[in-house]
Each structure stands twice: as C-alpha cells, then as structure tokens.
Design brief:
560 residues, alpha+beta, 4-stranded antiparallel β-sheet, 24% strand, flat, disordered N terminus, disordered C terminus
Length: 560
Amino acid sequence: MAINPLLAPIMTPSPLRVAEQAVGSTASLYVGDLEKSVTEGQLYSIFCQVAPVVSLRVCRDIAGRSLGYGYVNFHSREDANRALEYLNFTPINGNSIRVMFSNRDPTLRRNGMANVFIKNLEVNIDNKGLNEMFSSFGTILSCKVATYLNGQSKGYGFVQFTNEKSAMDAINGLNGTVANGKQIFVSLFIRRQERQNIQVGMFTNVYIKNFPKEFTDDNLRQEFAPFGEITSVLVMRDADGSSRCFGFVNYKRSECAIEAIKNLNGKMVNDLIMYVGRAQKKEERQAELKAKFERERNEKFKQFEGLNLYLKNLDDSIGDVHLRNLFENFGEIGSCKVMVDSHGRSKGYGFVSFKTVESVQKAINEMNGKMFGRKPLYICVAQRKEERRAILKMVHPIFNQDVTYMNGAATAVMVPLRLSTSIVAHGFTQTDITVPSPYIANNNNALASVDAEKQHEILGEKLYSLVEQVEPEFAAKVTGMLLELEKIEVLHLIESASDLRVKISQAIEALQQRKVEEVGDAADLASALSSSNASHDTTDLDCAPSSSSELASAPLSSNA
C-alpha cells in the first residue's frame, strides 16, 4: 500500500513546526468514530474548509487498517475550537464523527471525574442529540451513546464535563426527566468493579424461581409485599404468554430485599420449594458456579488423593474390563476407566482408583514400563493439571514450550508449535514402524520411569547429537521437527541411521519450502510497513487521546 504526500506545497517548514509543538494539545483535535474507509485526504478536505490545517493523521495498525480515530493539528487554539464547533458529529462515509480536544493527561479519563452516566435513552437519540441535551450545563469533553455493531443504540450513554460542578448540575437538572417520551436516569458514572462491590452488599432486586405456573405478577407481589415497599414485579413468560416459573421483585430499600430472601427462600408453595435470592448478572452467576464446581472438585480429589493412578500409552485394544483385569490382582479397585473420544475410540490413557496406598505402590512397581501390545505402559499417581504444571516448572523452567536444542549445548529453547506443525503439512510425514526393536523396547522401559517432559528432553538430547553429525547448520530446527513424531518412531530413528537420514532430508526440503513462503510473506509485510511513516496508537480511548505534540511533526499524507 503506497502513501503519497497530500498538498505538499502548504506544509510548514520545520523551524515553524518545532515552534508549534509548544502549544501541544491546545491546537490539536481528536477525531473519533471514523468509518474504516476514511482516508487522510477526506479528513483534510473537510477540516481545511473551516481553518488552515497544519497536519493530520488517521491512526492505523501495522497492516494499514484504520483504527477508527485520528488527529488534526491547527496553528492556534481558535482554529481548533472553530473546527470543533462546526464539524462535531459531521457524517463521513455514513458515520457521524466525534470531535474533541486532544488531552495529553490520561488521568482525566481514567479517574472518571465529572463523567455522567445516562440510561433508558430513546433509541433515536444519538451522540449529537445527547450533546445538545447536556451542553447547557457546561463544557463537554466527550459525549457518546453506546451502540451495537449495526449502529443501533443500546439505550445508554456517557457525557464527561470539564468539572464536577457541571456534572452535578446536569444530574440535578435532568435525572428523572422525560426525553423523547422516556424517563431517563442520570447519575455519576461508577466503574464496573465498584458497582459490583456495591451490588453485593446493597441490592434491591430479588430473583425468584420454581413457583407455581399459575402465578401472576399480582400473586408474586402479594407473596412478597409483607417485607417492604415494592417498586416493580415481573413474571417471565414465553412468547405464547405461558409462565417460565421465574421472575423478579424489586424493593425500594435493600433491607426489605434481604428480609424477603431470609423468610421466603425454601418456602413450600403448592408442593414446590421456591428459591429466592439476590438477582445477579449472567457473568457473576457463572463465576460463582465455576468457583463452586472448583471447590467440589478439589474436595473430591482430596478424598482420593494418592489412591488414583494415571495410565498412559494404553493399547487401543484395552477397554474398561480389560484394564480392571490387569490391575485387580494388586488390591480392591474403586473405579476403572479408559478415556474415549466421541466415537468411542480409546484416547490411549485412563485411570484406576484403589482403596489403599499399598495397592497403588504395588501396581506402579510391577506394571510401569511393561509392554502391552506395541506400547510400554506408563503409570504414575494422578495429579491435577495445576499441581503437575507447578512441579514441572520448578524442575524444568522451559516447561510448556516446544523444545529444540542449541548448537553445542543440551539446553532447551522455545520453538513455536505452529512452525513445526505447518512444516509437517508441507510433506514431512511420519512412517509406520511395524516391529519395535529390542533397543526401542529397552529404552521405552527406561523412559517410562520418568515424566513426559523429561522423556522429551532425553530424546531431544540424543536425537540432536545424531542430527548434528548429518546436518549441523539446521540441527536445532530439524530436531524440533523430528520430536513431533510418535515417541516410538523417534526411538527407531535414533537406532536406524539410514531412516534418520531420510527423515532429515524430508525435513530440509520442508524447511526450504517454508522459507520460500515466508519470503513472500515478508515482502508483503515490508510493503505494508513502508506505507506508514508514523507510529500508530493501538487503543481508541473515548475522552483523552495521546499527546499531539509528537503528531504535529507528522507529514500530511494520504493512501494511494
């Protein structure tokens, strides 16, 4: 994507540009809600009609895609103010832009000072309408109605003033008033975390479920009225009007809601046990259920801690019954399970739970490393994923990263999994090994006594030394690719020099093919990078974009 200078003759000489940087954000405007196709040329043609433009920029990502906002720099505060007054909410390519002064201090937007929240807005009220509604109370820094992706209003918005007095005046003047036929609610904006903390201790909305199907709003109100003044009652219904047997009751005071929950939760109504609790958002409810499930899982795991065996490398022919027969001689079995996929095929691992620790130890000592079918059985005491990761991180700092090996050293380094996976897809294929040799069987038994990560490291060190003798230049990458094969095939390659050479040749071919593709990708990326001559911000914050003093020196440009 090429970039051509726009109206180069009017660009200010550098000495003047340096002097203008002193005014900073006082002569710089932030332009938000830009449609993705808007270019610098379009912005310039609009803003230069109001006042002389020093420079402007539409912020883009590294691929050249618009981030939906930009900056326009002027010679003076007066010029910028005139552009703000005339061009705020001007439609460009179907989107009404939001224009405001660029603010170099991010603390103003982060602390939420003088920020007003408005809800229950009529859907036809847009940014401009909201701005007109609140502009009489003071200078507005930012004004925005929240919308869906299709541009339809979500029914709420935000207005940020320059000072707290203006915000309080707006709240006192507009809260509870009717706008376009709907009564609006206006208050100071409270951050989500702070709102959640307030809601847990101070709530008025009560959720009720499992009440009789014939219950109406009036029945629900009658049931809950003894505990305090009720502002609203709602029984949720299907499209055909039939009750869904749950609803909400909202009290005027929090104490009434708490008292209703204490007295009515668990009450029997027409042979149904009614549930009454604090109304929660979906996210909060899911978080609580997740925490509850985690607690129950931990308690269950503690009950069987040290008694549950994890088995890996199970032959495909081994099912639940066969597995129980293999281990029942070591002691009483509580449960036995081979894990299967959605088609009923074995995943190659399972669990056996014993009643005593002695049985567990005996099973590990006698069965670990034994060959069943074509695979050596790997057995260890079952651990939760979190515990296993914590232990492995202490033993191997490189845990959870794909492993290859540096020249002349046996230390592991990170190689992206997607690289080796894509290379396999380019022709680096696995071969079938029908009969494991004695070397493989013996080494499989030895490897079975250590954990999976240690096995990977041992095989990698051995394989690297052999690959380095054949292909020293690409030994690290080839080793990482070969380690993606099945363990039994890796052992075969360590033993068979001829088969190893074949695999190395396949790997080198795949690497070369991948390199050709990456050169093409790199050329495309270099072209995209050369099309942008300024660093691009990556976050569009409503009220206070980044400093414009640096933007003042950005050349005026346009996409070809």
